[in-house]
Design brief:
Distance between the termini: 66 Å
Strand content: under 5%
Structural class: mainly alpha
Number of helices: 30
Number of strands: 0
């Protein structure tokens, strides 16, 4: 990891050095040598560094060092040198309590801001591109946490924040290269991602594909956390509320480009929504966000609220409040993604499914935190469960997802099934399509279909249990076990699959037999007439786990009959103590 960080820092330093050269006063970038000469003006920045390093441990030496620092800072010229001096780490390394600390960085910041704004507003195309790119690189630089004692760089953030409108204003430039550079810069700017994202959306309407692509790529970068630098969505240094705010900007901006004629723009916009939904899901699970509810415990078991403190409802509302706009944006994005499921392009349909899966997973995370659909709808600002903004958008996609499950492309069939799996019980309207996928020639598709049917259990038991029963003997072990696991979730309704499950109990591998007896046990006393015989056979299985489940199930049937009594008496001699104990309990039932 350290080696990767070093390479990233070295690469960024090289980029910054190139941009500084491009912005040297009175010189064009093409006229600069690839490496600065030892006597080049960049030495003036080095002299500022040396002056900062001279700040000692006593007031007199610091006074002398400050005088030298002022002289060397005054000698700096142009945005290139001023920018390089502004981000020197040494500004934060020599602060000592109760002693004069290095001063003058604010002045350098003001001069840099003025010089860069002049390049952005009045420079030629080359200087405008260089200035915009420098803005993006400085905004993406790992200032916060780069050195433990530096902390957040408030000055740099303030300077770049005031320059952001100037960079965004380049969207009106007649030069496509300048507009592209501005879009890329905003995509890299990580200090205030929500503000950069709002401006990026404007570039998606550009007439040139290169500009739109740069803007769409920037949205993806902002959504996934940039180059793992602090200040972006994926950074642990940003709290859940900040992530929710930024995501609330990313999602609607990306939705505008989903149907763009350019394939790359559409792809990046779908990816941006997917990444933003994932970032939101992580934020929801954070213990600084609604994830704290899991620590507090379920309703009714949480510790009492101290006198004078905010009530539980108020605390919960405060945890969820930042996510309400973002949740609404995701619901709207789901509606925008749905038309792509009808696209003639299989690639677009797959990307739409992948983005919808991320949105569905976000909804699953929020449901887990809230505890129930009604509580979730209330948490997200809705009055009734049916008004859940995210679910409402996802439900509109169900008919088209069902059609995607039957498409020719394997990747598309899988992608659609993954969305249904993430939706859980809400995928019931598409369950029939998933049941048909159990006959698919691809084992991964059958496996995914079985998981979907397990998630929608116990819905449509007659139809879905019959479909699952046909695949209990599937040639693929993962499919067999997942089918049996799905049948277990149907409980008593799985009685229609007893014949097929009993066959699986007699043969197959150890895991198949274990899950088969679990299905018989889950059917319970309601199906004892059909399940007693195979459960009695299971008492002689070689796997102790199978014997334990079988005898526990028989004990739950009540007073045993004659045949069961004989089998349970034999189980009293079992090698396993747990089996013997359970058998004795079953025989003592009155």
């Amino acid at each position: 990891m350290r080696a990767d960080n070093s390479r990233l820092a070295a690469a960024r330093s090289h980029v910054l050095a190139t941009l500084f050269l491009a912005l040297l006063p009175g010189a064009a970038a093409a006229q600069q040598p690839p490496f600065p000469h030892p006597s080049a003006p960049a030495d003036r920045v080095e002299k500022v560094r040396q002056a900062l390093q001279q700040f000692g441990r006593d007031a007199d030496s610091r006074t002398a060092a400050q005088k030298e620092l002022d002289e060397r800072a005054a000698a700096l010229r142009g945005a290139a040198e001023l920018g390089k001096a502004l981000i020197l780490d040494e500004w934060g390394l020599f602060a000592v309590p109760d002693l004069p600390n290095p001063a003058g960085r604010e002045g350098i910041g003001k001069r840099f801001e003025k010089a860069l704004r002049e390049a952005l507003e009045k420079g030629g195309a080359a200087r405008q591109c260089a200035a915009a790119t420098l803005f993006g690189e400085m905004g993406a630089a790992p200032r916060e946490g780069h050195r433990p004692n530096l902390g957040p760089d408030a000055l740099l953030t303030a300077v770049l924040s005031r320059l952001l409108p100037d960079v965004a204003g380049l969207s009106a430039s007649p030069d496509g290269g300048v507009r592209e550079a501005a879009a890329r810069a905003l995509g890299r700017y990580s200090l205030e991602p929500e503000n950069a994202v709002k401006e990026l959306g404007k570039f998606l309407g550009d007439k040139e594909a290169a500009v739109k692509r740069a803007a769409a790529e920037g949205l993806v970068r902002q959504a996934r956390g940039g180059d793992a630098t602090p200040g972006t969505l994926g950074s642990p240094s940003r709290g859940p509320a900040a992530i929710a705010t930024a995501c609330g900007a990313v999602v609607p901006a990306a939705a505008k480009g989903l149907n763009d004629d350019d394939e790359q723009v559409s792809r990046h916009c779908a990816d941006a929504i997917k990444q933003a939904a994932r970032a939101l899901g992580q934020a929801v699970r954070s213990t600084d966000g609604p994830g704290r509810l899991l620590i507090l415990g379920p309703p009714g078991l949480r510790p009492p609220v101290p006198p004078g403190a905010a009530g539980e409802d108020e605390v919960i509302a405060k945890l969820w409040e930042p996510f309400r706009p973002a949740a609404g944006a995701l619901g709207a994005a789901a509606r925008s993604l749905t038309p792509l499921l009808k696209s003639a392009s299989a690639a677009r349909r797959v990307r739409a499914c992948q983005a919808l899966e991320a949105v569905a997973e976000f909804r699953a995370h929020t449901l887990r935190m809230a505890g129930s659909p009604g509580a979730l709808a209330k948490a997200l600002g809705a009055k009734e469960a049916k008004e859940d903004p995210v679910l409402a958008g996802l439900k509109e996609a169900l008919p088209d997802l069902a059609r995607c499950v039957a498409r020719e492309d394997v990747e598309e069939r899988l992608a659609a099934l993954y969305v249904l799996e993430a939706l859980g019980l809400e995928a019931v309207p598409a369950a029939v399509a998933a049941s048909k996928a159990l006959a698919d020639g691809d084992p991964f598709v059958r496996w995914a279909a079985a998981r979907v049917l397990g998630k929608v259990a116990p819905a449509k038991p007659v139809l879905l249990v019959a479909a699952l029963a046909e695949k209990v003997g599937d040639e693929n072990g993962d499919v067999r076990i997942t089918v049996l696991a799905a049948l277990e979730r149907y409980g008593p309704a799985a009685v229609g699959a007893v014949k097929e499950v009993s066959q699986a109990l007699k043969g197959g591998d150890e895991q198949t037999r274990l899950w088969a007896v679990r299905v018989l046990a889950a059917i319970g006393p309601e199906g004892r007439e059909k399940t007693t015989a195979p459960l009695l056979e299971a008492l002689s299985a070689k796997e102790v786990a199978v014997r334990r489940i079988a005898v526990r199930a028989l004990a739950g049937f009540g007073k045993p009959g004659a045949t069961a009594t004989d089998a349970l008496r034999a189980a009293l001699k079992d090698d396993d103590a747990e089996v013997r104990r359970l058998a004795s309990e079953a025989l003592l039932v009155e």
